[in-house]
């Protein structure tokens, strides 16, 4: 009896591993194909798609880089960095005000800020275009900075607020006894204590800003302000017949976030889990 | 009087967030409702009040219904794969003994969710490409060349192809979250069930499933809501074609406004997205209010 269960268990284990590894292959192989195609020639891409490149040259990667990807990357980095800083600070201030300062209408304020979580960006699209045209910010870096910040403040505040609620009250009392003002208490005591959740929110915001497409596509058209997702589409329409260059561009766009995910996995998982689990 | 002033001063902490959200999230939303009652040419600037005409037009527009149907299909398939499929997968991964392998597998499955939908969409655009694409070559390699298609070029296969890519892109994300939920279940419950002679399948149905119910609920809502906001992948892969067969509400909104210059109509479509997503959010809040699984 025991040996029968042991045998069945072993068979089940083999099937389990076979399934999990096949699934991993389904995920990894297309990505590998993308990276490899960046090394191939056009002829090789149209030949046997499963073959390896005949020689490894970074030509296409270099071409992609010079034909705009370096500009898109710069814009993406700029928009990502500035909107991350803006979002995290604005959200941390708000979370501090909502949890540790006795402000009037605090319930209502909490509801208004977190309620933004429920609203889809596409719903606001038409009015936002009109608004940004009127402000003269259409097709500018500022449009993306403002929109990425405004639409992510609710989610980021939600995460930081939940974390701050769990910090002990005694911390504030101790700060007050030491004669710290609110401002000092926030910067010197509360914010450093929130480091884990701040890290999570920073990483999640980077993933968002790096990959965002709807706003980036609608609000930018010129070469100087296009981020990578939109830039890749331009690359595709301009050099769509030079497939290796397009594949190389895609690989360049994907690489930083995959690296970021593996480096900050723990914090990203924590942030995501708190985001939907609380 | 002084204390009131001091309390009001505390508002300074939340003012930046309130202003940003108020001006750029809530105000446009309200404005959108007004716009949906206009016939509005954004380039000439002409605006004319037409009442509910845009909404009547919506009801009579076959492409609108097709878009809505595609969103519903998206939601249904995503629920199957990204909620229930991901839950089963997360439980299966827990069956792997080495924790290091568990982490590695989950990380690998998550990679497509880290890269942008634009990259994923373009990648699958090429995979579905009839001549150089992996899919047709793979079918030929296993002797099923007869099943080859111009996947994104034919009305019957284009939408399923896009939805399939979306499952590839998103399943690792929900698997990761279910894994967190499963790990929060105290080990003792599983040990007790194992001692009672309960097999792994029954353990899944009688222990795991009931105890991750809350996460399942939230993930379902998030998934459905996401399915009604689909835009990026459709735009990248087909722009709604061929012959509008892959339009979803988001792309039809974009096309109506920004390509066909009918912004009042686009605003009416936006209102539909608003009503649907708000309805889901309210349902989610209502579900969350009910008794939670507590330890």
Automatic annotation (TrEMBL), chain A:
Keyword Transmembrane annotated: yes
Membrane topology: Multi-pass membrane protein
Gene3D superfamilies: MetI-like
Assigned keywords, A-Z: Cell membrane, Membrane, Transmembrane, Transmembrane helix, Transport
Location(s), subcellular: Cell membrane
Location (main, coarse): membrane
Stored PROSITE patterns: ABC_TM1
GO annotation, cellular component aspect: plasma membrane
Residue stretches making up the ABC transmembrane type-1 domain: 73-264
The keyword Hydrolase is assigned to this record: no
Stated family: Belongs to the binding-protein-dependent transport system permease family.
Protein known as: ABC transporter permease subunit
From TrEMBL, chain B:
Pfam families, alphabetized: BPD_transp_1
InterPro entries reported in the protein's UniProt record: ABC_transporter_permease (IPR051393), MetI-like (IPR000515), MetI-like_sf (IPR035906)
Location of the protein in the cell: Cell membrane
Main location: membrane
Domain ABC transmembrane type-1: 68-284
Membrane topology according to the record: Multi-pass membrane protein
Highest taxon, organism lineage: Bacteria
SUPFAM superfamilies given in the database record: MetI-like (SSF161098)
UniProt-listed GO biological process terms: transmembrane transport
GO cellular component annotations of the record: plasma membrane
Swiss-Prot/TrEMBL keywords: Cell membrane, Membrane, Transmembrane, Transmembrane helix, Transport
Residues annotated as transmembrane: 9-29, 72-92, 104-128, 158-182, 211-231, 263-287
PANTHER family: ABC TRANSPORTER PERMEASE PROTEIN, INNER MEMBRANE ABC TRANSPORTER PERMEASE PROTEIN YCJO
Stated family: Belongs to the binding-protein-dependent transport system permease family.
Protein name: ABC transporter permease subunit
Organism field: Microbispora catharanthi
């Amino acid at each position: 009896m025991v040996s029968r269960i042991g045998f069945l268990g072993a068979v089940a284990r083999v099937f389990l591993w076979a399934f999990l590894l096949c699934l991993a292959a389904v995920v990894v192989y297309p990505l590998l194909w993308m990276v490899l195609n960046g090394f191939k020639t056009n002829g090789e891409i149209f030949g046997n798609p499963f073959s390896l490149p005949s020689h490894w040259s970074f030509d296409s990667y270099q071409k992609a880089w010079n034909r705009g990807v370096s500009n898109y990357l710069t814009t993406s980095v700029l928009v990502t960095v500035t909107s991350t800083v803006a979002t995290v600070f604005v959200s941390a201030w708000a979370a501090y005000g909502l949890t540790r300062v006795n402000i009037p209408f605090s319930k209502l304020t909490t509801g208004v800020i977190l309620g933004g979580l429920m609203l889809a960006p596409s719903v606001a699209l038409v009015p936002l275009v009109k608004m940004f045209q009127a402000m003269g910010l259409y097709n500018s870096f500022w449009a993306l900075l403002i929109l990425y910040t405004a639409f992510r403040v609710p989610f980021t505040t939600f995460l930081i607020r939940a974390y701050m609620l769990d910090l002990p009250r005694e911390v504030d009392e101790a700060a007050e006894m030491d004669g710290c003002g609110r401002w000092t208490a926030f910067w010197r005591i509360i914010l450093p204590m929130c480091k884990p959740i701040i890290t999570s929110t920073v990483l999640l915001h980077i993933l968002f800003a790096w990959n965002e497409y709807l706003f980036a596509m609608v609000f930018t058209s010129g070469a100087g302000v296009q981020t990578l997702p939109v830039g890749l589409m331009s690359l595709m329409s301009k050099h769509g017949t030079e497939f290796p260059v397009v594949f190389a561009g895609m690989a360049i766009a994907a690489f930083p976030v995959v690296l970021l995910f593996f480096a900050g996995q723990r914090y990203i998982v924590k942030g995501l889990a708190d985001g939907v689990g609380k | 009087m002084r204390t009131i002033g001091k309390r009001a001063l505390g508002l300074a902490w939340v003012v930046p967030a309130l202003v940003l959200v108020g001006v750029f999230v809530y105000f446009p939303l309200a404005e959108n409702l007004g716009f949906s009652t206009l016939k509005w040419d954004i380039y000439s600037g002409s605006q004319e009040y037409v009442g509910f005409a845009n909404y009547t037009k919506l009801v009579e527009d076959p492409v609108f219904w097709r878009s809505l149907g595609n969103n519903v299909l998206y939601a249904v398939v995503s629920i199957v794969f990204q909620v229930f499929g991901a839950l089963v997968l997360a439980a299966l991964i827990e069956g792997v003994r080495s924790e290091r392998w568990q982490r590695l597998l989950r990380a690998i499955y998550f990679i497509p969710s880290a890269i942008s939908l634009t990259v994923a969409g373009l990648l699958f655009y090429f995979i579905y490409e009839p001549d150089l694409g992996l899919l047709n070559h793979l079918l030929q390699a296993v002797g099923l060349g007869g099943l080859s298609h111009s996947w994104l070029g034919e009305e019957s296969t284009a939408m399923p192809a896009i939805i399939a890519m979306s499952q590839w892109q998103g399943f690792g994300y929900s698997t990761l979250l279910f894994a967190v939920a499963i790990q929060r279940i105290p080990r003792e419950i599983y040990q007790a069930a194992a001692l009672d002679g309960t097999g792994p399948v029954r353990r899944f149905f009688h222990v795991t499933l009931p105890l991750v119910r809350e996460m399942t609920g939230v993930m379902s809502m998030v998934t459905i809501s996401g399915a009604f906001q689909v835009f990026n992948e459709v735009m990248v892969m087909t722009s709604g074609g061929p012959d509008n067969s892959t339009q979803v509400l988001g792309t039809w909104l974009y096309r109506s406004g920004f390509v066909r210059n009918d912004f009042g109509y686009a605003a009416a479509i936006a209102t539909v997205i608003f009503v649907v997503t708000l309805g889901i959010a309210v349902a989610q809040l209502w579900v969350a209010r009910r008794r939670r699984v507590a330890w």
